[in-house]
Design brief:
Elements: H1 2-21, H2 27-32, H3 39-48, E1 55-59, H4 65-72, E2 76-81, H5 84-97, E3 102-105, H6 111-114, E4 120-125, H7 136-146, E5 147-155, H8 160-164, E6 188-191, E7 207-210, H9 215-224
Parallel strand pairs: 1-2, 1-4, 2-3, 4-5
Antiparallel strand pairs: 6-7
């Protein structure tokens, strides 16, 4: 796992500045409009409920656009990420838009110690976060320790069935299951030179390690640490072209 973590950290460290510079993350719009929210948070406003005054932490926050969006909705947020480059971009972004959101550099499994044992009303995690974690039960334990009694976790993720599909169609335009649906001991290794946003940067760090986690595994892990489901939705859309040639733009 340690080797995988370092491989993934190097991957994200190289991409963070390119992501911050990409129009897809809309940092300029955040600076121009104090009410602007990220696509992810804006989509989830009907499901988030009232967050005004809540003390929240965003695990695996990357460059902080969702974190600051939650703060703009009234939560008192801290962001946490294992990539030093991502945290540097997030802090610069917060300063640019005049936000008092704090950002902490830490692996998510070490979050309790990194946050000095503080407990929160809200734990938030966004799209493309859980796949970087090898052990979903360990993650759920961390979430349980971070939450105050009565606190809530909000997860917005890509569907694990989507993560299991090949990102190109077969000769017959069929969807093909190429990767594991359930958690495996060994990671799925990808070697990809690009990234998911618009950028002209040519990356040299191209390898990443990831793990899928089935819906049952995620829900059971959270149930086992004493949590209960209050809302559950399987969406029929994603905010990027996840299956090129097989999707329609909404």
């Amino acid at each position: 796992m340690d080797d995988s973590m370092e491989i993934n950290r190097a991957n994200w460290d190289e991409r963070a500045p390119a992501h911050a510079a990409s129009p897809d993350y809309e940092l300029d719009r955040f600076a121009e409009d104090p009410h602007h929210l990220s696509h992810v948070v804006r989509f989830d406003v009907p499901r988030l409920g009232d967050v005004i005054g809540l003390r929240g932490v965003h695990l695996q926050c990357h460059i902080g656009t969702d974190t600051i969006s939650l703060a703009r909705l009234g939560a008192r947020m801290t962001g946490l990420d294992f990539s030093s480059a991502s945290i540097a971009q997030a802090r610069a972004f917060a300063q640019r838009v005049g936000s008092d959101v704090g950002f902490v550099e830490s692996d998510v499994y070490d979050a309790v110690a990194a946050l000095d044992g503080e407990q929160f009303d809200l734990v938030f995690t966004g799209i493309g976060a859980l796949c970087w974690l090898p052990d979903i039960s360990r993650w759920a334990t961390v979430v349980g320790e971070l939450l105050k009694p009565g606190g809530r976790l909000f997860v917005r993720e890509g569907h694990p069935m989507l993560w299991a599909l090949a990102d190109t169609s077969s000769a017959d335009d069929l969807l093909v299951v190429e990767h594991p649906y359930f958690e495996t001991a060994d990671p799925v290794v990808f070697d990809e030179g690009g990234t998911y946003v618009e950028t002209d940067v040519a990356f040299t760090t191209t390898t990443s390690h990831s793990w899928n986690h089935g819906l049952g595994e995620i829900i059971t892990a959270l149930h086992d640490v004493g949590m209960r489901i209050t809302h559950f939705v399987e969406h029929d859309s994603v905010p990027w072209n996840a299956l090129p040639g097989l999707m329609e733009k909404s």
